[in-house]
Amino acid sequence: MTNSQIAETLEEIGDLLEFKGENPFRIRAYRNAARAIKNMADGAADIIGSDDRELTDVEGIGKDLAEKIATLIATGQLPLLNDLRAEVPRGVRAIMRIPGVGPKKAARLYQELHVKTLSELRHACEREKVRNIAGFGAKSEQKILGGIRIAASADERMYWARADEIAQRLREHLTSVSAVKRLEIAGSYRRGKETVGDLDILTVAEAAAPVMDALADFPGVVETIARGETKMSVRLEGGLQVDLRVVPAEAFGAALQYFTGSKEHNVAFRKRAKDRGLKVNEYGVFKVKGGADGNEADDPGASIAGAEEADVYAALDLPLIPPELRENRGEFSFASQEDIPTLIETDDIRGDLHLHTTASDGRNSLREMIEAAQAHGLAYIAVTDHSKRVNVASGLDAVRLRKQWAEIDEIRPTLPEGFYVLKGVECDILEAGGMDLPDDVLAEADWVIASVHFGQNQSKEKITQRIIGALENPHVAILAHPTGRLINRRDPYEVDLDEVMAAAKEHHKMLELNANPARLDLNEIYCAAAKQRGIPVVISTDAHSVEQYANMRFGVIQARRAGLTKADVANTKTFKQFEKTLKKTRRVV
DNA sequence: GCCGTTTTCGGCCCGACTGTTTTCAGTCG
After folding, report:
1. What is the mean pLDDT of chain A?
2. CA of A59 to C1' of B26 (A)
3. Which nucleotides of B are covered by protein (CB under 7 A)?
4. How far is the CA of A105 from the C1' of B22 (A)?
5. Domains identified in chain A and CATH numbers
6. Which of the pair, A166 or A289, is modelled with greater confidence?
7. H or E segment at A407?
8. Which of A220, A308, A315, A411 is 20 to 30 Å apart from A427, CA to CA?
């Protein structure tokens, strides 16, 4: 059983307990544990099986939950969950995902109308039965009808790259309003999460009304969900919610901190404030009268920081923590030791080592890709078309590959000083194991990427062994998109990344962070694990056209979330330095 | 249900907005 399956089980328990109106802190404990499991690089099952580690070492997992998780792994089920499922109707989790409907209202709908699925609820609304229940009215009935569609697709979060396009347009649209003095887009977008659920815009403005009017006029707005004095929410075509908040200038930094999140980071942040006899909210940092016990009333108007985010952190004796690290995954202990890593930036990247041409499934020719790389300011690239197994992409056999390499040999003398093109290939790892091209061909390449494209449904053991076999090949330099996941579309294949990383370390191989917005594979958890093991990460665009060189920044953001610095990423090196790292991959152990 | 060199019991972040209320519960972020 995978960590994400365990996490989903714990989340379901949390939802069902919430529906039942159980102790909110017990509910939170299940959700915290789900999150902790999801954030672990190691499999929970492996920890249970090991001699030197315990699940209770994990923050948020105590004796009880450790036992429940062990039961879950051993038997595939959990008595508590079985009981809850027997008690609580199946569809209520979906009902609780309707905006404006929480556990209390879902429970009342069930008690009063025996509504237990989204479609039953739609029926009840259409027959105007919901408005007669206490706490509901005609308006909530209408909202629920609209929300059912949203609940049905609530799990679909937008790729960060797509959210970024919208965010840029919103920023342009709103900063053109003369009343707007400052504007920042906070939330998971600012943290660079791989997917974004909504956009949180923060502004300082002379007056709120013109900004809100402008937001209402933004092309694509289909609904104003709420509009108050300081806060407004709209929904765009396609369902993305945009929240706008107008805050006083003296509170902008505090609001930016607050609305950037994550929720988990903020909980820890506020607790830290409390420990220091301070209180933090979206208006600033305040001294609490009577000290840390907080028994006496707050002292209003005694804000000691708020206008700038850096000051808000400084008030809690912290350096400004980069948004990408704000997940309560250790950034506070980093920061307390004044050991915040200087995160990698897109400008640090010097080479792109995974790209395709018209020889396989790319849209631009070899020459076009080479020219565009120079225009992008890169110092080196590797041309890595598919190998023959990927017949749908017209993958290259030895003859065609050698022909392409001969072409590169011809182009090389024409290249400007200091620009290099590596003769590479993205060679498939075959279903039965082994590489798609013979060793004598791979030996002629400067750069061999190993990839799994087929046999993704094989067992964990089989896939892991295929990959390790590839990493043992002296000609292979790197493993591409190591888990094969496509965000929102395809789960990662079953692979023991712990073993894969051990093999990569042993054979001095590199691991790819694929910058395609749908892949972002390795994810930030495993990227951090690779860093910890000292395995060089290469961020690659996997460009299939000249435009896709621009995807590099999506990979860089993911790397930042993993805490990677320039030194952790091999393609930030100069070409000469990079060649040394490359040479090590060919050392036979 | 978790957590703890102040605690093994008693905490666990906090404010805005909505809808249906007659002063506030529920939801959300």
Report:
1. 90
2. 31
3. 1-3, 6, 11-21, 25-29
4. 21
5. 3-156 (1.10.150.110), 158-246 (3.30.460.10), 268-336 (3.30.210.10), 346-585 (3.20.20.140)
6. A166
7. helix A398-411
8. A411
